[in-house]
Structure formats: C-alpha cells, structure tokens
Amino acid sequence: MIMSRCRIFTLVLISTMLLIGRYQTLFLQQPHDIPPLLKAHQIRGGGKGEHTEVQDTRWEAQQQERKAAMLKGCGSEPSEASLLHVLDQHPTLDHLLINDAHQAVFCYIAKVASKTWRKVWANTVGVSAVLKRKHMLQYMVNSLIPDEHRQKSDLIRKVANYTKFLVVRHPFQRLFSAYKDKIQPPNPERDVISVLSYVQKHRFNATRKDIQWQEFVSYIIDGGYRENQHWRPYVMQCYLCDIQYDIIAKYETLFEDSEEILRRIGAPESLHFPDYYPSSTQTELMSYMGKLTQEQTDRLYQIYQQDFELFQYTHNTE
C-alpha cells in the first residue's frame, strides 16, 4: 500500500515537472505583446544602435508611404520659388520651431499632442525653464523666435538642410478634441468668445457654457475655421506644399514616431518621449457626428479635405 502511494506521488511529481518545463519553453518562445514598431523603443536602452534593422526598414517604408501621399496631394515637389513666395507672406515662418544645435525644424499644430512635444522640444533646445511657464507656446513664439533674428537667407538654408517634421491626426478627431477642450461646458476657455458671438446671432440667449456641437460646426463652416490655431486646417499652418518634410508623425503612432525623431536628430540619449496613450475619441465622435445634417458633414469635410488627402485619413473617422 505504501509502495503504491509512493509510486503515485512519484508519477504526479514527474508529470508536474514536465508540465512546468513545457510551460517555460512555450513562454520563452512567445514574442512579448509589443507591436514590432514599439519593441526597441519601449526597451528604452537609449541609442540608435539598439534599433533593429527590420524595425528601421519597416518604419522607413511607412514614412515613404506617408510622404508619397503628401506629394501626390500637393501635385508637385516643393520648390525654392514656392518657399520664397511663402517667405514674402510669412517672413519669419512663425509656425516653425528651429533647433540649430540638432539641425531640426518642428511645425507645431495645436490639439495634436503639441503640449507634450513642446516640453520635449524645450529640453532639446536647452530652455527647460520655459517648462515652468503657463503659456509656454506663447513664450516660444513671442520671445524665442524674435530673438533668433530670422533672416530670409538663413531660413532658406535651414529649411533645405535641417530635419523637418510635424505631427498630425484625423482632422475630425482633432476638431472634436478642440471642441471638448476649448468650447464644451463646464469650463470653456477664452477661445470661446468668437464662437459665442457667432452663436448668439442665431440663438440670442446662448451663453459661454451651453454652446452645442452643431452650433460650433456651423461656426466652423461659416468661416470660423480660419480664426483659431486649434481648428485651423493643417494646410493653413505648416506650409505643407512649400516645404518638404522629412518625417510625418501621426497621433496614432505617436510614441514610436517621436522616439525615432529624437534619435535621428541626435537628441541626448537620456531624452525620451514620455509614455503616451493617445486618447480615443472615435466612438464619441461618431455619436456627435450623427447629430449633424448631411449638408453640415459634407461642408465640414470640404474645409478639411486637403488635410484628409495629404495624410491618408478617411471621411468615416476611422
């Protein structure tokens, strides 16, 4: 009886050890659940040397596809003549932040992780004190840019030779994010003043705290899209068809794109883009878009159509 129990115990022990060994083997063979483009970045070992050749090739192919779509949407490659024309209208290219130390140019766009990127940018240009300022962007634009004494010849040279990049997202998601952040109650910001003035022409008893999505869209359609950087189309901000951008980052792939940018411009190895979890507004946006008439939706698309086409976004907000 005792021998039988010993044999049973031995068999159970052996079986258990075999199962554990099999589990460990399977676990070690399984790739970690990190998308291929994220693996090298999330290890955060630091330098470019830790990027795999496969990853670099995949990321480069993705960038080539994005740039090809942008070129197709513009109809031709940017020329020096077109840049000179832009400089006549915008002598300082004041939507571009320039980093001479790392030979990089960043076109900032509001409501596309611009606050996070500006903090990173402030560290790359050695003005981390800016991070303590409440209105950091205004300081960068109103103080730092004039201090650079931008000359036309210098700008032409830098635009030709520096690494140029921007970050974009789905145009309607960006617009909806602006509405939620700047217009929607209970805490509308000062950006609401021009919107409220418009809405009160159609609903006299409207207040800063009850502007509806449909009213905001009507304001945008009737020309309001020109009045504020938070909802101004990309094509009105970054001189898209007059400057050939080297890297097109997207909100949907923000972390890996941003890490690539930092490594490629030679940012300090210790500087990384912070862990970022892009907010998903798609489901809520679809609900709000359902409140619009077909005419409103069509006209809204017409305003941002070039943004959709240049950056390969679809009309159905996916």
Kindly list the characteristics that best describe this protein.
single chain; 318 residues; mainly alpha; four-stranded mixed sheet; 13 helices; 6% strand; globular
Characterize the structure shown.
Strands 1-2-3-4 form a 4-stranded mixed sheet. 53% of the residues lie in helices and 6% in strands. The termini are far apart. It has helices at 2-29, 39-43, 53-74, 80-89, 114-124, 136-147, 152-161, 171-183, 192-202, 213-221, 254-264, 282-289, 294-310, and strands spanning 96-99, 104-107, 163-168, 247-250. A hairpin with a 4-residue loop joins strand 1 and strand 2 (104-107). It is globular, with a radius of gyration of 25 Å. It has one domain.
Question: Strand fraction band?
Answer: 5-15%
Overall average pLDDT = 80
How many helices? The count is 13
Query: What is the strand tally?
Result: 4
Coarse shape: globular
Classification by helices and strands: mainly alpha
Helix proportion of residues, in percent? 40-55%
Low-pLDDT sequence parts = 8-49
Q: What gap, in angstroms, lies between the N and C termini?
A: 69 Å
Strand and helix order: HHHHEEHHHEHHHEHHH
Radius of gyration: 25 Å
Oligomerization state:
single chain
Count of individual domains:
1
Largest sheet: 4 strands, mixed
Strands ordered across the widest β-sheet? 1-2-3-4
Topology:
Elements: H1 2-29, H2 39-43, H3 53-74, H4 80-89, E1 96-99, E2 104-107, H5 114-124, H6 136-147, H7 152-161, E3 163-168, H8 171-183, H9 192-202, H10 213-221, E4 247-250, H11 254-264, H12 282-289, H13 294-310
Parallel strand pairs: 2-3, 3-4
Antiparallel strand pairs: 1-2
Helix pairs in contact: 10-13
